[in-house]
Amino acid sequence: MMMSKLIGRGAFALAAAATLAMAPVGAEAKDWRGWNIHVVDYPVSHGMEAFMAEVEEKTAGSVKGKVFHAGVLGSQPDAIEQLRLGILDFGVFSLGPMGQAVPETNVVSLPFIFKSVPQMYRLMDGAPGEARGKGLEAKGIVALGYYDAGARSFYNSIKPINTPADVEGMKVRVMNNDLFVGMIESMGGNATPMAFAEVYQSIKTGVVDGAENNPPSYESTSHFEVAKYYSMSQHLIIPECLCMSKKTFDALTPEQQTIVKEAGRASTELQRKLWQEREAASMKIVVDGGVTVNEIADKSAFQAAMAPVYDSYLAANPEMTELVNLFRNAD
Questions:
Q1: d(Cα 122, Cα 102) in Å, to the nearest integer?
Q2: How far apart are CA 60 and CA 52, in angstroms?
Q3: Cα-Cα-Cα-Cα dihedral of 96, 305, 225, 42, to 10°?
Q4: Strand-pair partners of 236
Q5: Whole-prediction pTM
């Protein structure tokens, strides 16, 4: 009697093990965790939530997850490393700071590498973006799409900027990055790295004449109150990557991988639309606030002025020459 019970239990265990073995490999073992630095009500955040919702719906709930907003899962450098290790499953990361882990991403931090935001879309969705994607994948990261993080332009309290010569002698706050310091110096300006929180008061008191950022940041920080000239130089167009861990991606079935890729593309389209709406709203606020906005249709003079910046970068990173040229020579 006892023996028959043991045999019965053993047969049940073998059957259960066989059932598990035949089940498709996927992400059922754990819910995904997504990293996001932005607050909940933000274009990036809405794009990420839409991505996760579509994946869950189209996999009939076999893949589920949660987006953790406002950086609650840690800093971006830590999150990138956790993504590579598979501790985090997906996230949206600025390609600027990602350069430490993936050198190919530094290319989009070069000033005037893109001629416009629509061109950035075309290139990142095409061959140059695919080349960058291979660099990411080699580091354990799968790129699902490139979000719009805006174009940074110059603003100041003195005059409109239409040519590189207009920057000469101007004190401009920049992020603490040699590329951005070199960008201002190549136009004859005085680059002043400082904490972002100090910019408003520094412009107001004349410590610096201006700074640079995208329209939502210019508006939401009230910098437009003290710097009434906004010049659409769009000198830095650094996209953000909707990325996932290669370990997580490789654990999916082929069907699940297709669903994830399609959800990534749909999420990217939604985020870009929401970002453009946010930018338009910010521009209306600053114009209504008395800001003089000027377009710079031809950026070739600015691009030519960046020669020393590019020469310095490529001298230190000769392996990036082909990729840089792929971006610079694109229409």
A1: 22
A2: 12
A3: -30
A4: 152
A5: 0.83
